Model the fold of this input.
Amino acid sequence: MAHFGPTRRSLLQGTLAASALSLTGFPAHAEPQWKKYAGTKLEVILAKGPRGDNLQKNIKEFTDLTGIQVESEQIPEQQQRQKAVIEFTSGKPSFDVVHLSYHVQKRQFEKAGWLADLSGFLKDPNLTAPDLVESDFSAAGLQYAKNDKGQMHSLPWSVDYFILYYNKELFQKKGVAVPKTFDEMVTAAETLTDPKEGTFGFVGRGLRNANMTLWTNFFLNYGGEFLDAKGNILTDGPEAIEATKMYQRLLTKVAPPGVAGFNWMESMASFTQGRSAMWIDGVGWAPPLEDPAASRIVGKVGYTMVPAGPKGQYSATYGDGLGIAQTSKNKEAAYLLCQWAVSKAQGARLLQAGGGVPFRNSILNDAEVRKGVKMPQEWLQSVIDSAKISKLGLPVIIPVAEFRDLVGAGVTATLSGADPATELKKAHEQFRPILERSEKA
Amino acid sequence: MPGWRPPSYWPFVLPALIVVLAVIIFPWAYTIWMSLHEWKVGSLPTFVGLANYIRLPSDARFVESVWHTLVYTALSVALPLLLGTLAAVVFHAKFPMRGFLRGLFILPMMATPVAIALVWTMMFHPQLGILNYLLSLIGLPPQLWVFHPATVIPSLVLVETWQWTPLVMLIVLGGLAAIPAEPYESAMIDGATRWQIFRYISLPLIMPFLIIASMIRMIDAVKSFDIIFAITQGGPGSASETINLYLYSVAFVYYDVGYASAIVVVFFALIVALAAALLRLRQKTHWNDAGGVA
Done:
């Protein structure tokens, strides 16, 4: 990968400049004592992906800055989640810093008390650079990182908004306008569907479990809320039924055959080969779509927000963060690493390569950073717009995986013609006892 | 017992005994102990007796997964066995470049299951996959392969068959090579047809090899995980979820180790039962009395 980001020198200069100008509106502080923990050794467990790559690639800068040695390993996402949970359960995790997936693990980690409270560190000028303030993180990020007592148990690293990808060429050919609402999206998809040509109006995840991240975009825009004040699950109510009907309509009438078994990979294949005109999925897919070696539609991709539903316009949001094991003996050093990983310099690199979107507004709003973005500006705009309408994409509960499996299986069943209301009811009869047990435990 | 002394060989047995206890007996005892507890990772185990086992028959997903496992196993044993035997007969005959072609034939067996699974996933793609393109060349309508509940298991068996037919071929080829030439010579003198020769001479004599091959295939297929997980993750819906996949979800995604242990115990019993049935069959078809069976 090309080297886009700022150098270490400019990072340091930038941080100093930020302090001097006090861009965040806070009085300028002295720099944290980066070298205080020199010689410490940290273990980090990362989920495989562009975030992990970005950290590992530039880790030398952190070691040069602090004198802290970092041993890190990247493990495929699902296995990394399992490994982290099993190690935490053992009481003696082998790592100091853990990369966590908020939409799956937030509640589980909080309830088990596995992560250290970082609130104090954030307020300590000896540890925290002046530009790192809570208010710089987007609302979704803070919602994810804070527990119900308002303590920060992780630093939000990268956010994943769901956006609408569309094929401009197919749209032009049929004279279709970019949809702003679900109704417009359905009409557009119908016009764009041409089974003889082998092109379809819409594609998206149909596979059980994976499909829930797409489904919730419909659910939220039909006015759905996951939980009531008492923590009861609401995903079989009228909003959910309407959302499922819309999902069913799109995926059975205007989507490629076999979509019930599609995960993001098959959906992306259909979209990059110009066989599907619209695709709703996470914002991180721009690099492969714009890669001539992997895509036939380079330069023809449009990026916009998920269209509005009858009850509003939201982008289902997911994200990951960095936390420190409660048992770690090197919490301060680990905190310096987390801080560096979510720093402006590292965040800028991530954004510029299209490998992720930082939770920090100061990075997204920086004109210099934006200029360096290698992806189309339209993509960046869709990111910025989605940030304004972002809403957590999955319920914050412990049995997230069971929720995705059971309700996801019901939703997939509707693609074979099953009735949405019946399927949701059936799924929730199975899921409710699991949720109740998990909260009692 | 008076005068009893430990047999002189015991110091030699001891290391093996310790290893067996540590890596086989202890994990089993522990699994059974776990299966009697309600135990979610992160919370303390509580003893529940046989509750986890009683839950199994009413767990629709488990019952369905047992059925999927049996269908998948039956097909993944039968097809490679049939095709592998056929291939062995073909490769047993002498023809030019036989060695080279044999080598080519066993290539799929050397591939990493997860890597080939990903390749097959794209080959199955209903819009872009090469399989539907090939069907279109001979005028057949496109299929949904692994993307439809009704065709997903046969399609996965196709991958399994592609990869493991060579193994059966190798085993059967070994059997064929070991058959003496005399029975064939006398059969030819008696004017037997090729089919008769195969049916009444080759088949009975390779029967012990076929049973070994079935057993290896059966054990492999029943515990198959990588190909199914990489291609469908048990989907669409749960149409291709075998016991192993369900077990994985319960243990490592839902972290319900108590219930997962109960599934393991039942799964183990199933494998033992299947293997015992095959072993019995093998005992009946010893090489020496193979003629009697025929």
Summary: The first strand of chain A starts at residue 41 and ends at 47. Strands of chain A lie at 41-47, 69-75, 97-101, 155-167, 200-203, 276-282, 301-305, 315-324, 357-358, 390-392. The longest helix of chain A spans residues 420-440.
